[in-house]
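dumping this here so i dont lose it
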């Protein structure tokens, strides 16, 4: 799926856009060029549901890695504290 497919599903209707541009004085060629520019911009800037799903997956993976790292740090700190208590208190 391309980003421009997402543009079409957002309610963008080429024929209606052309009619509106023609109503304000553009000829058909100018109106169609405006549409081409809009599609080029959208292709580089629209975020699709697939993009968001990939991003969500990356955040889940990051969260899991951070949880593991935090757990290791806490475990290490507890182990170090226990060793210090044994050395200094025992």
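and the seq i came up w/
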């Amino acid at each position: 799926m391309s980003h421009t497919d997402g543009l079409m599903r957002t309610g963008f209707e080429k024929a209606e856009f052309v009619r509106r541009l023609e109503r304000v004085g553009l000829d058909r060629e100018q109106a169609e060029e405006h549409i081409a520019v809009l599609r080029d911009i959208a292709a580089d800037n629209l975020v699709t549901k697939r993009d968001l799903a990939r991003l969500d997956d990356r955040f889940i993976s990051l969260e899991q890695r951070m949880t593991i790292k935090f757990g290791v740090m806490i475990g290490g700190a507890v182990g170090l504290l226990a060793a210090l208590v044994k050395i200094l208190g025992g």
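The mean pLDDT is 85.
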